[in-house]
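haha ok so turns out i had the wrong file open the whole time. this is the CORRECT one, sorry everyone. sequence first:
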Amino acid sequence: MSSGGKSIREMLKAAVDVRTASVLHGVVVSASPVKIQVTSDAKLLLTESNLFIPEHLTDHQVKISVSGGSGSTSSNDGHSHSVSGVSFSNATMTIKNALQANDEVYLLSFNRGQLYYVLDRVG
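then structure:
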């Protein structure tokens, strides 16, 4: 989706009624499916149906290119190899960063408390 030259702040202001938006603290109580308990309200347990989870807080794949450099590999049995001039492009790397049970998160509440955007982990 194109932002049409708007800043993130302008887009958020257009999408969120700032008078009813608030930042909350929560704890992930289940990773699959994701469930988050809002710490200030013991009755409020959020599920995937009312959560927006950004890609950086999921397991996801990215395309990478690496060139040059050198290094070595070794195993617990003392076996090792030297590596130099490594080069590859359009490789796929999996980033393992999904929310886990007991993760503390910041949540942005919007749409009068009907929807929540997971901003990031705490700390």
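The helical segments are 8-15.
again sry for the mixup
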